[in-house]
Design brief:
The chain is an alpha+beta fold. It has 14 helices and 35 strands. The chain has 3 domains: 108 residues, Immunoglobulin-like (Sandwich), CATH 2.60.40.1220; 105 residues, Immunoglobulin-like; 399 residues, Glycosyltransferase (Alpha/alpha barrel), CATH 1.50.10.140.
Length: 653
């Protein structure tokens, strides 16, 4: 039966009718528009449909929903709802799937009014749901109801699961073949089952504990049928188990744990170093490819290794000699090194087609390490005096001022012997490269002037911030501070304690940056699995998509151990919680031969097994700066450091 209703036909949504009444403009069920005149066209509506009802006028949202009903067979269907920002649409989602092959009525009463009191004539719109297939409608885990598609977290390790279907299922099927639970490692988990609710619900239990802190996928195969022969297209329910706090390794003191982490991470730079050059490999599968910046971090890690008695001083001096010999013969570009090299030949390996020459930022990371090493060596020991002289020659050969291309008063990141300045990338703050300008200002031979620092590094309109995030003020940089390596790389030697210039207190900058990053993870606005006070830290690292930069504004669920562990000086208690969680709770899932693996994404069930030099180095060095200040004290003792501070206007409390 057709019921008379007031419609707007052929009217654009942004056109208002001439009369001061509310009129029904459209109803959409998922992507399908209902025919508001001929209900016979409103068939095969999916039972998981979401409904949008659009009107010509703004509604009185405080009362409108009281005048909208969804009914079948004279019974109301309950739903949740919200209004569009312009108050002209109401979006309705039934709490449960609609019944199959049923006629439903969307009843809009004539008591509905617009925001300004406009009247509505009322309408009943009918549609028929799909006769369709058997579907999973909802499920319970340990008594808690969930709609299909939701992915519960913090599920105990022996859950009781009830899965409800839209119709009764065929109980003669062998369900041990039709239901599978697989964890993120691909392991199949044994289960038992029983039927409830007239075979519309199947209850599932597990004789053994599930893998903790794991993505679990409960799959229902399409061999399942309805009791009346309805076809089933298959379904999957995902959930995440909670962490098992039982220690995976023997408990040791906090100091012993820090030493253990430093020792294993140090081994990446000593045991796994390239055999010919002594340099750090880019990553644990890089073969002969070695990295300049990561090796600069590694030089500082080797100093820690000597002082912590991981190796003897003699072993360390031998390794330093090997590294410096390689740096002397390696391709250089106006004194600067490139990003990657062949560890045997010293020939550059292009980072990209145009990035096949000098990389000034990578060079500055190595220069920071070499200057720190020089201060560590003893001039009254012949072998060490030789290294001091050779380090000075390498540092004095870097033509920092030449990279102030065309006197633009800003440093260029790259120069290529084949395409020159074609990369066109300047080093501009705020990011990880403060040390580049600092080392350039410190040079005895090719220094930059202070103007280059103030114009090139600090002269951007995004350098200063001053806004508050989670109640914490960020002096410099992009909102939320960016990835945490911004507060690590430049400060492996440059001590931020009491360090200030005209732009910021660098201790405040780095500590607040870290606290903001942590606060974001604890708040966990995207509801990623595992984020907590025990598990936080976003920075650049490997991830489930390959490699990426991770920060609050680019968060995909990846936790990188180096983020919190390299922040020990800024957040010692908070970082220790992470260290203990990773080591004791997650155990060998994140711990291997060279310390903690690079990253993991528990939400996606991805557990990386890689190591990267630029992520491992800061862990050793910044932990040591937290414990003893060793690298900070060495770097800050150099006369070049004092010269740079004076030139650039830095002060130290």
């Amino acid at each position: 039966m057709l019921i008379s209703i007031a419609l707007v036909s052929g009217c654009e949504e942004n056109e208002k009718p001439s009369t001061k009444t509310v009129q029904l403009l459209s109803i959409r069920m998922n992507d399908k528009a209902l025919d508001l005149v001929n209900y016979a066209n409103n068939t095969e509506i999916p039972i998981d449909s979401k409904i949008e009802i659009r009107f010509t006028e703004k509604l009185d949202t405080t009362k409108a929903i009281q005048h909208i009903k969804l009914e079948t067979g004279g019974l109301n269907t309950t739903f949740k709802y919200y209004f569009s920002t312009d108050s002209r649409s109401v979006f309705i989602t039934p709490y449960e799937f609609l019944y199959k092959n049923k006629i439903y009525t969307i009843r809009i009463l004539n008591t509905l009014t617009g925001l300004l009191g406009e009247k509505y004539i009322g309408a009943d719109i009918e549609f028929t749901t799909v006769a369709g297939n058997l579907v999973v409608s909802s499920f319970k885990i340990d008594g808690t109801n969930y709609t299909y598609g939701f992915k519960p977290q913090q599920i105990n390790l022996k859950p009781y699961i009830e899965v409800s279907f839209s119709d009764a299922i065929d109980t003669t099927i062998q369900y041990t073949d039709a239901i599978k639970l697989v964890n993120s490692t691909g392991t199949l988990t044994p289960l038992t089952y029983s039927f409830k609710n007239n075979a519309k619900t199947i209850a599932i239990q597990f004789p053994n504990k599930l893998v903790h802190f794991s993505k679990q996928t409960l799959s229902f195969l399409n061999m399942i049928k309805g009791a009346q022969g309805e076809e089933f297209n298959g379904a999957a329910i995902q959930f995440y188990t909670l962490p098992d706090s039982t220690p995976k390794f023997p408990l040791i003191s906090d100091e012993e744990l820090l030493t253990k982490i430093q020792l294993h991470t140090f081994k990446y730079f000593y045991d796994f170093a390239h055999p010919a050059s002594g340099m750090a490999r880019e990553r644990n599968n890089s073969g002969d490819l070695v990295t300049i910046g990561g090796s600069g971090f590694g030089v500082m890690a080797l100093i820690v290794g000597i002082e912590r008695n991981f190796i003897t001083r003699t072993q360390g001096i031998e390794r330093f000699n090997t590294i410096i010999t390689f740096l002397e013969k390696a391709d250089k570009f106006h004194g600067a090194w490139g990003h990657w090299y062949n560890g045997n030949s010293g020939k550059i390996i292009p980072f990209s087609s145009k990035d096949n020459g000098g990389d000034l930022v990578e060079t500055s990371f190595m220069a920071q390490g070499l200057l720190t090493l020089r201060q560590y060596l003893h001039a009254d020991v012949t072998a060490e005096k030789d290294l001091i002289d050779r380090i000075n020659t390498l540092l004095d050969g870097i033509e920092w001022s030449w990279y102030n291309h065309d006197n633009q008063n800003m440093l260029s990141w790259h120069w290529s012997p084949t395409v020159g300045w074609a990369m066109g990338m300047h080093v501009r703050g705020y990011n990880e490269a403060l040390i580049t300008y600092f080392m350039a200002a410190s040079s005895n031979t090719y220094p930059i002037e202070a103007l280059v620092y103030h114009t090139g590094w600090a002269g951007t309109n995004y350098f200063r911030n001053g806004r508050s995030f989670y109640g914490i003020t960020l002096p410099l940089g992009f909102d939320y501070g960016g990835p945490l390596f911004f507060s690590h790389y430049s400060f492996l030697g440059l001590n931020p304690k009491g360090l200030s210039d005209t732009y910021a207190s660098y201790w405040t900058q780095n500590q607040n940056h870290t606290l903001i990053n942590r606060a974001y993870c604890v708040a966990n606005p995207k509801k990623f699995v595992g984020y907590s006070e025990d598990c936080w830290g976003l920075t650049a690292s490997d991830d489930n998509t390959g490699y990426g930069v991770h920060e609050p504004t680019r968060d995909i669920g990846v936790i990188s151990p180096t983020a919190a562990l390299s922040s020990f000086p800024y957040t010692p208690e908070e970082s220790m919680r992470v260290a203990k969680f990773l080591y004791y709770v997650l155990g060998d899932r994140v711990w291997g031969e060279y310390g903690f693996y690079d990253a993991f994404n528990a939400h996606e069930g991805w557990w990386g097994k890689s190591y990267l030099a630029i992520d491992q180095g800061p862990i050793v060095v910044m932990m040591e700066n937290h414990r003893s200040g060793l690298l900070w004290n060495l770097f800050m003792s150099a006369p070049e450091t004092a010269n740079a501070m004076n030139k650039l206007g830095f002060t130290k409390e």
